[in-house]
Every structure is written in structure tokens, then in C-alpha cells.
Sequence to fold (446 residues):
Amino acid sequence: MRDLKKAGPGGLNYLSAFELTKKLNSGEITSVEVVKDCLARISARDKDIGAWKYISADYVMEQAERCDKEKGSGLLHGIPIGIKDNLDTNDMPTGYGTHIYPNYIPDNDSETVAKLRRAGAILLGKTVTSEFAGPFPGPTLNPYDSSRTPGVSSMGSAAGVADYMMPLANGSQTGGSIIRPASLCGIYGYKGSFGHISGDGIRHLKPSIDTLGHFARSIEDLELMRCALTDDTPVNFSDEYTLPKTIGICKTGEWHAAQNEVISMIGKVKECLTSSNTRVEEVILPNEFTVVMNRSFQVIYSWELRAAHEKEIEGHLEEFNPWFQWAVDYAKELTETDFDEAILEAKNVRAILDDIFREVDVILTPSALGEAPKDLKGIPKNNFNNLWTLMYVPCLNLPLFLGPNDLPVGLQIIGPQNEDQNLLKSAHSIDLRIKEYFNKFPITLN
Fold:
């Protein structure tokens, strides 16, 4: 993988949040020093990447100086974090990825932002998102190859973490807006179980689908931020691992669209795990999963999108991107009965998935179709993400592999709903096992 550390200034911005926390707590470093290195990296690189919608160096330094004086005990005390621009911040502009909210500062924080503040985090700024966090591409570029997409809609958060601008950033996922950007940018990404991280205060929330999560460069950091947002106690990861007893490999109905590097990755993962003491089984999803994805997902998405954006649609519809306009038109043809049926269909398929998780502990599947595509304006017709978002289960991207163009290819691990901490434990074990088996990292695919 291209070494991003060769570009721009070096320093504390290269460390994980877990490493920074230990150094901050011991007094070895200060928050001001950490923030200075992050800001230097942003100054050197963001003109090429475009990860940031808003950042105020003076305000960031003010927060860092306050953290150094207060010496708080929060899990993220003194750690700089990027905030996706669809989350309200009462001291920074929130534009929701649009041009119709210039310099708009909400009265209140979203609950996730408020919890990050209480955990002692430094809000570094607002990261770029696509218009209303939808699937239409935005301006951010992939830090490993600026001719390629970083994914949407949490593009700024993913690219910023991947480029060492900050150790952590949050994201939201309606379809694949956390897992796919994490895969394309070569970092760890975690989408929580539905409702596991509070969505309270998110202005344009699609209440039956939208799910929160975050990005990091280690699983330890994912767990640290998850616990700061849920009040859980962080698990103590070590170099030892215990694999799940039974691991399912699921190609899903989108396998026909998988690129060669993804097919090769799944083969290598199966080889690695089959040689261990764990049992590996292929999970073939019943037809109900295909049916629910053919219609139910889009019905729920479009119906709730139209309700969430009623005000903006009334005054600005013609100004929005073509995909948004299409979704609104699609929703106009739906009835409340269509929506109720789609909700019930999704609920019934979740029950089937619950039964599958009685047979396997976790499921492995691709995170994306392959390496980051060069089409900067395209919306993928196929993906390995929407289904799992609709199923309400926790998902995590492992950035272990490289494709033929020396670009990241991600492996997705999925666990039962509301078993988020267990999923991170399993992901950590699988991560270590794959690295140990191939005796190198990252792993190049054929």
C-alpha cells in the first residue's frame, strides 16, 4: 500500500487514539502538541483531498489548551475527532452537505456530538458529506489515488482518518456510507447495531434505517470511541486471540458484481480460517433476502427521506442532485400501505437472520465490490452493504488486503444484532489470525 506518511509533516497525528491516550494520561505529551500535528497535516494535504467542510484552527487550539488545563478523565480526553457534517454542532456551522444552509449554526448538538464532548474529545471540525448524506458523490478524493473515489457519504471522515489528519471520525450509514468508504480508503470502519449509538438530534434522520458508527486506524480505537458513546467499558485487547467457533462466509446476491480481487480475497480468507480450529461454513441466504432488497429497502429509504426533508423539498427540490430528485419522485408513487408492508418484510427477514446466527457466530462478506473505482460521479448499482444496514446488525471493515492497483480491498465482518462488543472481539481475533497466517500486512491479492 502506498505509504501516506511520505507526504506532508510527521508527528503525533500518526499515532492511534489508544496510543495518544496513554501518552496524554502519563503527561508525556499534551493535547496542544497533538492538535498542532493534526492541523499541520491538514494544511499540507487537504488541498489535494478535500476532507474538510469547516475547520477553525484557533477554535481547535482553544479546545486543546482547555483540555490540557482540565486534565479530565473521559475516555477521549484530548483526542481530536472529525465530525461528519450531517451532525449538528452548536459551535460550528452545519451544512448537511448542501449549499442551502450557509453558515447555519444549530442551537443544539446532536446527542452523539454531546457525548463526545462529555468524553473530553476535541472537535477538530466538520468533515465533508454528500448532499443530505445520500449516495450522490461529493468533492472528496481518495487519499491513496486522487483519481478515485473515497466512497460516500462519510467520505470526508474516512479520507481524513486514512490520511492521518486525525485518529478518529464519526460517520452514519443508511446504505453503505461507513463500511464502503472504510474499505476504499483502507481503514477500520464500524457501523453499530441499529440504535446502539444514539441518533437523537440528527435533523434529517431516516428513523427506520439510519445507523451511526465511526472510523479509525485500529480496532482498539473503534472500541474506545464506541464505549465513549455508549457508556460501555472498553474490552482489553491483547496479542492473543480466540477465533469464533463457527464462521460463516456469505457471498450474498451481489456476488455477480464482485471484482476479481474480491473473489480472490474471499478465497484466501477461507483458506486461512479453514486451516484453524474454527469451523467455516458457507451461508446461502434464502430468497426472502433478495426480495427484500429488490424493493423494501428503497421503499423505506425514499418514504422516510421525503418525510425528513419536507421543508427542503418544498423550497429547493430543483436545486438538489438528480438522485435526490429521483428518490422524491419515487416516494410520491408510494402509499402508506407500501411503506408498512416494506417495514414488515424487513422485520420478517431479520427473524430469518436471527436463525442463521444460531448456526454461525459471525458472517464474513466483502465490504465493497473491489478497489476504489475511478468513476468519481457514479452511484454503484450493486453493493455488499445495504442489506446488512436494513438487517440492523453491527458491521466492521478489516483493511487487510491490496488489489492489483495496490489499493485497499476490505473484508466485512458481521455479527448478531446488539452483540457489538462481541463483534469487535471477533474482528480483532480474525484480524490477527489473517495477518499471522499470511505473515505480512497488507496482503496482496492475485
User: Anything to note?
Assistant: The chain has 14 helices and twelve strands.
